[in-house]
Each structure stands twice: as structure tokens, then as C-alpha cells.
Amino acid sequence: MSRADTFTRWGVVASGEGGGRIAAELLAREENPGIDDRIALLNTNRADILNTIERASLDDTSEYTTVFGSKRGVGNNFIAGEQCAREDVDLIVGDIQERMTGADAFMHMTTLGGGTGNGSIPYLIEQLSGGSDASNLRPWMDSVVHVALAAWPYYDEPAQRQFNALMGLSRLLMRRDGQQNADMVLLASNSHLDGDGDQGSYDAVNDKIVTAIDLFISAGREARGVIDVEDYVAQPSNIGAYHFTPAVATGLNGRMLEYELMFDRAAEQTFVPMDVTTARAAYAVVRAPEQLIESGDITETGVQSAFGEWKRDNDIGGAVGMTTLTPKQTRGNDVDVLVLLGGFDLNPLLDHSRDAFETHKQNVEAARQLGNAPEDSISEAHVADLTENLERYVSINAR
Q1: Mean pLDDT of all residues in 246-273
Q2: For residue 384, what pLDDT is reported?
Q3: Taking each helix axis from N to C terminus, what angle separates 116-128 and 159-173, rounded to the nearest 10 degrees?
Q4: What is the CATH architecture assignment of 9-218?
Q5: For the whole prediction, is pTM greater than 0.85?
Q6: Architecture of 246-345 per CATH?
Q7: Which of 24, 89, 258, 288 could crosslink 56 through cysteines, CB 3.0-4.6 Å?
Q8: If you ran DSSP here, which 8-state letter would residue 174 be given?
Q9: Where is the Tubulin/FtsZ GTPase domain (predicted)?
Q10: Average pLDDT value over all residues in the chain
Q11: Mean predicted confidence (pLDDT) in 95-123
């Protein structure tokens, strides 16, 4: 088997308008090694899919897209989004199987404030990993790793979106019976990436997210000390710490800065509000010009040793994780660093949405008592189950 055959082969599954925007930004880049044409763009609304296709400059709409469900848009109702996915689960799973043949891992993309992606992606992850609603899964899918990329709504968005975010995160992390759902959940907060609490540029936020995904995937490509996707998920899952956030610094001077300063620069730019010292898992991906690696200015052992020291300096020396050094074909001394932090205390993020969550929950219950709640609104018992699951997961990882 050639070296190329050992690379992690990714498939992208994006659902909803927000997830489609992130996927389009990724796919519009000139090169996406590891993804190739393993792409599935899902939506209940054909117009939104066409917008995604246009953004990504893809040629054949039918080759990559699936319109599902009996509704043409579900608004912000994630229960309706899940119901639409249930209606057409065989269609969706069949299309994904055809487009993703041979993939080692799926990158599922969604935003957590809305209805289509937030409703369908957690459900589809469960089904694609062997849930009862999806039949005849292909044998090659038994070992597929499911990574979810989830974007948190802006903090000033309406209460329903904050409610959706908490419920969506719960469903990505755990199935309703309390078992783990996604193998790994990557979190990014729009407001935190935008630098303030107000709604700003989705394009600028998505560009940062895609840079992190690119670095994340590069660790399974031509690297010194390859981090395979299994390495990302095995140990964190074993300790119940499988939520992560990227921290990225790009364009660092590889001849001038020490490794630990590079890790510091990255850690100052986490994608969600968090305390680095609460992380229970930590990975580092350093991407450097090939000439700096060949000359010995940047080495695999140097990166590994420095990252261990950096973790000890931040009181997370016992955090599970690995390092890798990835070459890039470019002139100059610019080095890019991804520090992937997992199992951290989620409360600094969740606190931005908890009051709005309670407000929306009370409004739904008031409407239900008056007989005004829609038929596809979430039940009180369902909210209680999802809340309990999330609180249990958060408590395990709180320090």
C-alpha cells in the first residue's frame, strides 16, 4: 500500500443554510486534499442549496445536493428539521453512501441556532453510525468516524436561537438515551470569533473556521508524526471529553519565534470563550515551510517537547493528546499553528445563552397551556431529557 493510501479520507456532510455557508467556504478553496469530491450538501429548501453551490463554485448541482423532507424550509424549528430528515432518511443515507464511498471520516457541518441543520445533523450522525431508522448501511461505514463542526449563534440573536444552541449541542454530544453521539464535536462561537457580541460578518467568521478545518485535516496528510482521525477521538471519548475548540495562529515567523510562544499565540485565539487550564485534551498541529523543516529550524521532536512544556506551564500537563509537524510548499518563514483544546469547562460559553434558553422554554410552555403551540414543537419531557444529558456532560468536564 502506498503512503497516499494511508491518508485520512474525509467526506463533508453539510446541512442547512449555515452549514452550507461553511462548506462552501471550504470547497471554494483551490485545493482540498483529503476531501476530493466526497461532498453532500443537504437542505429542505432548494434555493438555499443553489446558493451554496454558487458560493462553492461547484459545477453539477445534482452531483452533490439532496433536498429532503415535506417542508420547504423549517425556520428555526429544529424538531421540524429532524422530522424532515426522518421522512427521507433512506434517501439521505443512500445519497451519502454513494458520494462518500471509501471515506474514513465525515465532517458534519451545521450552525446551532437554526432548524434544518441543527435538527438533521445530530439525527443523521446517529443513523449513520447504526441507528435503527437507517437500513442497509454499507460495510465500509462501520468504521467511519463522525466529527461535527458546530457554530454557536451570535450572543444577541433571539432567544429561540439560544435555546436551539443548547438543545443542539446536547443532541450532538449525546443521544436521548445518554449514549455518546458524535465521536468529536468541534465548537466555534460567532461572537467570540467576531471579536464582539454583535452580529457581524459570517464570511469573516467562516474563513477562520475553514482555516482551522484545513489545519485539522492536514494532520492526517503528509506530516511528521501523523495524527490520524482515530487519534483525535479515541482517548478523549474514553474520558468523556470529546468536545473541542480550535485555537489558531497563522503567519508566525518560524525563524524568530520559539515554539512555546507560537502555542501561546494560538491559545490566545480560541474559537469559544474558555479557560485553557480546564482542558483535559490538547493536540498541536504545526504547519511550516518545507525548507524550514529540511534545514532543521523546525523539527518534530522540538515541537513535541515544547508542546509538553507548554501544557505543563498551563497546568494541563496530564491532558491527553499528540503533536504533528506538517510541511507546506511555500517560500518564506510563515508558520501556522493549530492548538486543539478539548474537555474544557463549557460554562463560559453556555452562560451566554442560558437566560435566553429559560425565557424561550417558558414561552413555549405558556403557548402550550393556551393551546397555541405548534404540533411539531418540542415536548416538555424532551427538553428535560436533553437538558439533563447536557448538564451531566458539562459537570464531568467542569473544573
Answers
A1: 94
A2: 95
A3: 10
A4: 3-Layer(aba) Sandwich (3.40)
A5: yes
A6: 2-Layer Sandwich (3.30)
A7: 24
A8: B
A9: 12-193
A10: 89
A11: 94
